[in-house]
Amino acid sequence: MTLFLIGLALVLAGGVSAVATRRGDGRRGDVLYQALVAGGCVAAAVDPARVLAGRPAVTLAVRATTPGGDWVLGIDALSAVFLVAVLGVSALCAVFGTHDLRREAADHHDGVRRPTWFAQLSFAVLVVAIALVVAARSVVVFLGAWEVMAIGSYVLIVTHHEVADVRRAGLIYLVATHTATLALFVMFSTWQVGASDWTFAALGAASPSLSAGARLAILLLALFAFGFKAGLVPLHFWLPPAHAAAPSHVSALMSGVVIKTGIYGLLRVLLMLGGAPAWWGWLVLGIGATSGVLGVLWALAQHDTKRLLAYHSVENIGIILMGIGVGVLGVAHGAPAIALLGFAGGLLHTVNHALFKSLLFLGAGAVYRATGTRNMEELGGLARRMPWTWAGFIIGAAAIIGVPPFNGFVSEWLVYQGLFAAGQSSELLRLALLGIPALALIGALALACFTKVAGVVFLGTARSARAAGAEEAGRGAIAAMLLLAGTCVVLGSLPPLGLALVTGAARALAGTSVVVPEAVVSSAWTISLLALVTAGLVSVLWAVRTAALRRRIVRYEPTWGCGYDAVTPRMQYTASSFASSILGMFGRLSGARVEKTALALHTHSVDLVLDGVALPMWSAMHRVALRMRALQHGGGRLHFYLLSILGALLALLAYLVVGPRP
Amino acid sequence: MTESPTIGAVVALAALLIGAPLVPGLAARAKAIATGRRGPPVWQLYADLWRLARRGIVYSTTTTWVFRLAPPVLVATTIAAASLLPLDGRGSVLRFAGDAVGFAYLFALGRFVLVLAALDTGSSFEGMGASRDVTFAMLVEPGLFVALAALGITAHDFSLTAMLGGTAARPAAGVVTPALVMVALSLFALSLAECARVPVDDPTTHLELTMVHEVMVLDHSGPDLAMLLYANALKLAVFAAIIVGVLLPVPRRGGVMGVGSLLAGLIAMGIAIGLVESAMARLRLPKVPLYIAGGSALALFGLILLLR
User: Fold this and answer.
1) A524 to chain B: which residues are within 8 Å by CB?
2) Which domain holds residue B269?
3) Nearest to A440 among B61, B71, B141 (CB)
């Protein structure tokens, strides 16, 4: 536990070092910052890694007389899984971010010269806050860290605050995150009524004596608050604008890690509550499937690379929730073996998504830095200009689609098995089988979406001068991307590794009596074999072809234009065209609005929840509030205002007299 | 789970790999005879593959390594998927719990690289074909998984070896229930879409604008094209093997009988495709979703019957 705290202190020191060295030429300060943050993350990850390796869980309590009681930190199997993912991804995002900020400061093509120290300090604070959220074992630490995390994210989202869209995205994010925090306050207060103090241990001990109503309230509030943070449909609306507005390494951290604290919160509540009723499991499973399908469908409608990736986070949160839903249902129906598969799948997908989504965001960030645009329709042909970024991006894309031998496959395979195992039982649980085609649909839509991004951005020929002049990212940025990509490949081709990572936490959730079936473990090894066989076949075929072509004529000619030889890059299939056939099938649900003219096809997307519900609701609230203001100002009549204060005080007095006694 | 593969399984896989090009050949021949022509010989595809394999290649200057990677990956993933099937009716070369998921996702990996290779050329025609291909795949995938789930429910195991092979505890051994017939029909309908055959796509069409799969491989030539053609034939053969497994349940086959029924299945598949192609034309694009949804609904009916 000490090493954990030392590590976090190092990360903070990294942030402070960025402030201290801000006057230098930047190079030495950058090295120091990267070394401190990355080194701190590695040091802090040692304790969680030990817990994952089978050491007992650790806690650390600090006696405090401040309101809210003792400050308790702890690392158990569940925290450890999240901490390892959080710290690993944070370190690499910090490295990428340093290079990205430096390059931005160097070319400052948006005309604004921005000091980097503030972004680096906020980033370090954010990383520490996330780690503390996951390690917190008392309400006061949890909520404190939660709030620092929320504000830290906000500060980073509005880095480019001179752009109106960025300020708007930040505001939407702030409203969303504070609504969630409010719900958390209510949830913990409801829970604490019967408990001795505000530690998680006390809340856990009090949970059997909770009344049915309190339990219901806690379950619904947890789903609402943590669901807001995780970005499940329909509470996802803050996510795409915020992720698009933030600097790339911050988007990577938010999408890979910050939204996962929502998943962590749900699982922690489940653990403290000792399970949830079946209806809640169905609710989570249903919301998961809905988020999955709608998230990827809406992603397909985007032409902004980072907005597209943000909607994919909604999709993947859906897949994670499907796993958790199966887990909850398994426990509720007394089938811990099914629960284990579901929880393990959900947890592993959380880790996997942290890896490949941050990788994809960093790739999109590298492209943005090189070209200055996030609009896919202006890109193209970058595979030649940015070969390393392309290598990382294509691995991330394959991983997110869930094809073997990449890590996304392993976790989806587990979720599929959980759904199928539930489908075999003889009870109502069988209906979970319907999750299988939903997951299949998600996978196929993700394939369509990522062939679109990868193909339109990186392949073909450049659609604009900016894309034609792109330059590869810096060495450190490439290293960060390739490390993430390498982890995706390792976890994908060695599935037992990922399984071992999450088994402890999944068992804690599903019931400690149950173990991972031998069949699943040995099957995980067979997947390695399958990956090896496939890779071997590919290399053999490649080698045979190379050998055969050595003595034959290989020519290089322009792409066959079907008889037309005045082809220009503008004639390539666009992202709009590529997606239009699928979007058309889903009609208005796809959120894409198509404008067809004789010469061009344009699609632009609206968010059905943000543009259809949230913004109209907020402007209605604004209108009502404006009316109310007349009461306050009273049109200059002070006596009316004083009268209303008096009325309110009288009403309070009356409540004290006739209301319930404490 | 990791018991070593039997010799029979390996022999059957070899038979499938060798016999696969028969399926498109038989389809073309059956179509020709049904429409009153003589048609090409059944082994036409073997000759085509041999001819292409000995040629040089013309690469588009726009393309990158993805374009060169696609054909080997497509062949490799299809072979890997085939190795998960209990082709001799008893056991498969590779087997693991939930390998039905691996089977479907191996095809997805092949599609991923093929679509990227099409987009790599920067040709609007190939982009159009790629867009259509992923659209149809999006429609086929849920139906395919419903069919697999239905088979899994029958076998109480989500592994293809148990679903289709002799080691399964498939109830009422030897009985083909109406639900299974529905699943088999659905798989046939979906395989036509998955393998780019009439009524979803027409491999013999000559106009680029009306193509789906063919237009994606427009820029491939020589050994690369041979690999793509072979992979497509193998995919058809794999679906034929699945349908054989559904309709000829345990306890049965193994050894010569197993390989024999597999080859008979390939021949039947080829002839069935040929008859479908002679009986109907390709559907208009907006009608394709209805066709695939119909095929998927059949599998769903089967699943509901099994869950009842």
Assistant:
1) 96
2) 7-307
3) B141
